[in-house]
Amino acid sequence: MKKNYMAVAFAAALTTAFLTAGCAPKAQATTTAAETTAEETAAPAPTEEAETEPETAPAVYGDTASVTLGEYKNLKAERVMAEVTDEEVQSQIDQVLKAHPNYTEVDRAAETGDTVNINFEGKIDGKAFEGGSSEDYDLELGSGAFIAGFEDGVVGMKKGETKDLSLKFPENYQHADVAGKDVIFTVTVNAVKEKEIPELTDEFVKSIAPDVLDAQQYRDTVKAQLTEYHQSVNDSTLDAELLAQVLENAEVVLTKADVDAEYNEQLVEMTKQAQSYGLDMETYASVSGMTMAQFQEELRHNAENTVKSRQVLGAIAEKENLTLTDEDRKALAEQYGYETVEELLEQLSVPEDLFEETALYRKVMDFVKEEADITEVPAGEKN
């Protein structure tokens, strides 16, 4: 199974640095000059996440930080039990099948959806340029992997055919030396291959999951994984609701210095995340549906909640004499899909003190949950 990057569910106590460390995109593979990238065409797609930001009263500021704990035991909440339908299971399986297509070479003109093996050479003002040529390149027509007009120009070509495509690089193209320039690509088709989506058979399952006995066991495994995932999302929501109650019941005084420090730290991490998508902060904010002023206001609110959560959870830990054990640390690492703490710290580049703080707050929230009056309800029946 792939690494589990589900957010640890204790809301603002988990700082932005830890969240972005787990969700940062992988480094991209090298592209040719003809190829486009996701950053040029679309913002990152949203993923399903729990609403883990607790709703709290307006922050109270003072010269000195302080916490007066209210009720944090015997809180009432509902735990929604995950339910996965057969349709959801089939949808997940369909995605896996589409990711493992079979290709058969065909003797006909290339169509959208086919994969063509091509040689191509690009020239600007009659001269070849770096990254503009490749041989034996497999290109799925209609994928949008190349600049506008390239793939459309290959549609209709047959094996052995050569064609010149007169195109133009986008003005905002990632390689500034060719951006906005006219280019001629000479393309030769070596093969046209038709894509066929396989069926879920015992043989297919063995090819992708050798440890799974047959198709039915694979289907059962997918359902179990989806159930686990949806339950983790529901439990994150439960944690957020409990934390919101804890914060609402407490009297907390924040200092401007603490909130400013947290705000600046989160802003740095958000800026890094935006840059990883090739965006400046103003564009990043607009992608989120906010003006820069609104984004800054939201970030300030998040910083206040983070500091408030940290102070309250720290106070509960002190009052209840909750301290970390190696088992607590290992459990947190495993929740993120790592076998050891050392592996997590290395892979996610997480500072050890942040991990320690996170693990402690996780333990406090587990304590709050154990002391709470929680009712399990079926999906769709939450009050």
In summary, what is this structure?
With 383 residues, the chain is α+β, with helices and mostly antiparallel strands.
Helical content class: 40-55%
Question: Rg to the nearest angstrom?
Answer: 26 Å
Query: What's the CATH C level of the largest domain?
Result: Mainly Alpha
Report, as a whole number of angstroms, the end-to-end distance.
35 Å
Written as H for each helix and E for each strand, in order along the chain, the element string is HHEEHEEEHEEHHEHHHHHHE
Number of helices: 12
Mean pLDDT: 87
Do you know the CATH topology of the largest domain?
Answer: Trigger factor, domain 2
Poorly predicted sequence stretches spanning 5 or more consecutive residues = 1-31, 36-51
How many β-strand stretches?
9
CATH architecture classification of the largest domain: Orthogonal Bundle
Q: Tally the structural domains.
A: 2
